[in-house]
């Protein structure tokens, strides 16, 4: 029997170990792409209920942000901490993209919606592996340090509303990645860590598409519901995301991803 896409998503979400999760993410993405290339949906989207929280390995130990040791990026330990933090974000992103597929599999959506998030989930699996490889190359590994405990909060906050999910996850959180990644690349460039520079440049270039998928499907759903996208975005972010957005913004990459300044600037201020 062919496993539906939604069941594949749940398989990834219920796999705990990082490399095993990313291997399954990549294999399922390849199966979906091959099926779609045949011109008909050999693999159905199907429906499935994702877990409230995805399975995660025993390590890293999850800690509140204030208890995660401060990083000094000028030191080798600081650079390991930075790679570790990005690996943690990427593993969470693998789960976020499979979660959107399973959680909203009962919504009537075009196949392109599922194609985009499968592609993003494949990218995130590659990104986790790149970061895990960089950690291994300097004698560390994912799980060696404590990591941020609050990563699944955005998924929980938006589990009942696809437009809120798109507004908060790709259009706020992944867009934030576009703002901060160039500074990170600079840290590794100054240290002569060329493998990490190359890996982070791959991540940086591929993340633009994830933000673009978010704004594309957000605008699509606004059109379907006859909503004005900008006020709808502001309203959903204010209700489902805690705290204001923080400049500086990567205006150019955000524009590439379909996010104009009048979407995010008003969210830097309290109302
Ligand atoms: Fe990523
Ligand atoms: Fe991403």
From TrEMBL:
Protein origin, superkingdom: Bacteria
CDD domains hit by this protein: Ferritin_like
Pfam families linked: DUF455 (PF04305)
Region (Disordered): 42-76
InterPro entries documented for this protein: DUF455 (IPR007402), Ferritin-like_SF (IPR009078), UCP012318 (IPR011197)
Name listed for the protein in its UniProt record: Uncharacterized conserved protein, contains ferritin-like DUF455 domain
Organism: Jannaschia helgolandensis
Source species taxonomy: Bacteria, Pseudomonadati, Pseudomonadota, Alphaproteobacteria, Rhodobacterales
């Amino acid at each position: 029997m062919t496993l539906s896409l939604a069941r594949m998503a749940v398989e990834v979400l219920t796999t705990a170990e990082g490399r095993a999760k990313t291997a399954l993410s990549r294999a399922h993405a390849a199966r979906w792409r091959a099926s779609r290339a045949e011109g008909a949906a050999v693999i159905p989207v199907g429906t499935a209920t994702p877990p409230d929280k995805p399975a995660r390995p025993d390590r890293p130990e999850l800690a509140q942000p204030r208890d995660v040791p401060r990083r000094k990026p000028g030191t080798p330990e600081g650079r390991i901490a930075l790679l570790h933090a990005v690996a943690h974000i990427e593993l969470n992103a693998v789960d976020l993209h499979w979660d959107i597929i399973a959680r909203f599999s009962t919504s009537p959506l075009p196949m392109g919606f599922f194609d985009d998030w499968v592609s993003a989930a494949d990218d995130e699996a590659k990104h986790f592996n790149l970061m895990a490889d960089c950690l291994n190359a300097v004698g560390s590994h994912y799980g060696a340090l404590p990591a941020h405990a609050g990563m699944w909060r955005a998924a929980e906050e938006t589990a009942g509303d696809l437009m809120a999910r798109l507004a908060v996850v790709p259009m706020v959180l992944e867009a934030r990645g576009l703002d901060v990644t160039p500074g990170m690349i600079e840290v590794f460039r100054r240290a002569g860590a060329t493998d990490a520079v190359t890996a982070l440049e791959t991540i940086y270039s591929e993340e633009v598409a994830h933000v673009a998928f978010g704004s594309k499907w957000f605008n699509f759903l606004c059109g379907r519901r006859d909503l004005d996208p900008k006020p709808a975005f502001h309203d959903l972010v204010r209700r489902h995301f805690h705290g204001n957005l923080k400049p500086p913004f990567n205006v150019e990459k955000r524009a590439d991803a379909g996010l104009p300044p009048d979407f995010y600037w008003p969210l830097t201020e309290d109302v």
